[in-house]
Amino acid sequence: MQKLVQGIHRFQRECFSQDEKLFETLIEGQNPLALFITCSDSRIDPSWLTQTKPGELFIQRTAGNIVPAYGAVHGGEAATIEYAVAALNVKDIIICGHSHCGAMSGLLHAEKVQKMPAVRAYLQHAEATRRIVEENYAHLTKEDERLTLTVEENVLVQLENLRTHPSVAAALGRDQLKLHGWVYEFETGQVFAFDPVKSQFVPLQEITAQIVEPSSAMPPI
Hints:
Layout: H1 2-18, H2 20-25, E1 34-39, H3 46-50, E2 57-62, H4 76-87, E3 92-98, H5 102-108, H6 117-122, H7 127-136, H8 143-163, H9 166-173, E4 178-185, E5 190-195, E6 200-203, H10 204-211
Parallel strand pairs: 1-2, 1-3, 3-4
Antiparallel strand pairs: 4-5, 5-6
Helix pairs in contact: 4-9, 7-8
């Protein structure tokens, strides 16, 4: 706790004073660039990863970056998504999984969450992920390979769940919103993005290189 208190003092003394004008502008409201949905894992810092400042990211964090399908849960996830799209008019939503995800490990090994009924129940919203890995990738026997694949597949499953939210579906229909699937490898700093053309995750720089090409007509990442 002492470290947190000292951090606040340092923030007020050094960081806040340097960006005081920025913080003053935040009184007027927020206009975030994107909704960033990621895992609650403490090893991920979305703002640090994307080098964004206060007011630039609308962030939602859940175990396993899970997005329950609309109506499946009456909770904060749906409200956050709806507010980001309908009120803040974000143009992009990113679902970002990460390496060594404990939630995805629990999804593969139910015994790890046996004594955590709330976690076990929440992971049911990733049941499609588990079935995809179990039934389609039985040949992968190495634990690290299976976990990496599970993280990637789960990002894609949660993107499909995201599409069930009415505000998202409507904005997609107006071509005013793009969805993106990322995986952050925190031990290397690499970020991989799903390329729908190649149907696989590739280094993010490969995608961005194609986007800046004037003749490129890449679908959403």
